[in-house]
Protein 1
Amino acid sequence: MIQRHDVGPRMSELAVHNGVAYLAGQIPEDPSEDIVGQTRQVLEAIDALLAQAGTDKTRILRAQIFLADIADFTGMNQAWDAWVVPGHTPPRATVQAALADPAWKVEIVVTAAV
């Protein structure tokens, strides 16, 4: 059985199947902030979706981070490092990518155990 949450006409924000939560790419609500602020917003959105699935950031299996400008790597890591739980840091990849909205500096996708 697949459970979908926050289902829209184009995509769902979250799907849960066989004890795994798959999140859509999360983007900042307020793109006027710098990379640290945008990353914090994205991580808060991830926390909220993981809670909906009945899990949390200590159970993330994998994270994929997309930066509009790889020069923002240090600032993104500042927010990331403050957010992750020591001893529970997930496997992660970070790449530079053209994001759908030029105001977005970061988009993050995670998969987590439920």
Protein 2
Amino acid sequence: MPAVDSLVCFALYAANRTTTQAYRVLLEPWNLTYPQYIALVTLWSDGPQTVGGLGDALQLDSGTLSPMLARMEAAGYVTRTRGGDDERVVTVSLTARGSALRDELTHVPRCIAAGAGLTDADSARDLIDALHQLTEAMKSLRDHPGTVLDAVGAPRRRA
């Protein structure tokens, strides 16, 4: 067994990478990427969003988000319009084609859940809750590394 197989970070990396690859296979007939899909899911659920709000929701920076939205607009899935009072604010909305994709892609979450071995809504919710907890814990480590370094007695390297 490779040494990396015993690392939590590698298990998370491998699971994330393989999940994204599974989405790629499921979304390929629609020529959609996983980030485009989650943008659509957000717009389906929450309605029109500013580019900034969508970026926050998807945890994507504008350098990644803007070109993606341009491709989605060229494909006819979304429109981008500048705000009335502040021309810097751009709102992203679904087109009729983008809205219609919701019905065409209803199988995707079910396929992912089945592929992950999630047999019911409770098992899915448990996994989602555990992943949210992990995300918050890693944000805390990212934002306050000294606290964790001290807690585990790790040496600090001086720059």
Protein 3
Amino acid sequence: MTTPELLSDEELDQLGELAQAATPVPWFVRSLDDGHAMNLVAVSTTPDTGLGERWPNFDHREILAATLVQHPRYVDAADEWWDENAQFIAAAREAVPRLVAEIRSLRSQLKASSSEDRSRGAN
């Protein structure tokens, strides 16, 4: 496995800006169903009720993304990892800003530690 390239400060800025501009958290995975979008797996601003609501018993304005719209076949990943993909998207919404903040904090700590080491070496 190759090591991914480290993110630049500019890329961290871009990720932070993208997260800031996105629909506010929290995001949830929902399993919905209807005669038009059979077996809809979606990322939503409201939690799943477990009822597999059929349209019009759910508000389409709460849906942020879909990883499966089976009928007609609008969204249907070949690997069939609809649920896993939806879970990742929903989790990434909260994780990305936290990861950006942690990277910035660690870089700041590393820079401060490096400065201290150079100061001690000059004495």
Protein 4
Amino acid sequence: MTRLAYQYVVLRCVPRPDREEFVNVGVVLFCEATGFLEVACRVDHDRLRALDPRLDLAQVEAGLAFVVGVCAGDERGGSAARAPLGQRFGFLKAPRSTVIQPGPVHGGLTADPARQLEHLLERLVG
């Protein structure tokens, strides 16, 4: 069985950066060897509202739709979606000060990037 190197970042929703609280809402996984760049998301509205009852959940969903567009290479991702896969992952893992923020980059080995993404979503997002 061939084990392939991959990198991933956990996407965090940070409703109030001043309080440094966040809820994990997704995982972006990049496997250069297979040309795999995908995101899996799960948003727990109740947990987010517990951190900030005024949080605009539509803004959270729009931020995640943008990430989906970048990964898929479609118009939702704007100009970033037209870059090569490695550059798209680099764009997504870069720190930013929006409500959706990437955590640190991690890596590993897998025989099945899609299955690994689902495993990471279940383990890190819930």
